[in-house]
Amino acid sequence: MTENELNQLSKDALEELGRTQGVELDKRLTKKKLVAQIAKFFTISEKKIIEKVEAEAPEAKAEPAPSQVIPDRG
């Protein structure tokens, strides 16, 4: 989620979104601080996912797909 999308949510919605992701937000904080906290969480999570995918499939980015010429049998 982008910060613009997060800014469109209410403080209640931000708190609920945080809970679904395992992040507890304090609604006594300003909306700007809540958005910053959850945006930081999403950024960290996204980086971890990318690192995990890259670690599991390093050969996918190391070698280009082989090209094969199939003769025309017509």
Give a brief outline of the structure.
The protein has 74 residues and is mainly α.
Give the N-to-C terminal Cα separation.
52 Å
The DSSP helix count reads 4
* Main sheet summary: none
Number of strands: 0
As a percent range, the share of strand residues is under 5%
| Number of structural domains | 1
H-E order: HHHH
Mean pLDDT metric: 83
What layout of secondary structure does this protein have?
Layout: H1 3-7, H2 11-20, H3 31-56, H4 58-62
Structure description:
- The mean pLDDT is 83.
- The relative contact order is 0.11.
- The protein has one domain.
- The chain starts with a helix and ends in a 12-residue tail after the last helix.
- The longest helix has 26 residues, at 31-56.
- The protein has 74 residues and is mostly helical.
- It is elongated and about 75 Å long.
- The chain has four helices and no strands.
Question: Which keywords apply here?
Answer:
74 residues, 4 helices, elongated, mainly alpha
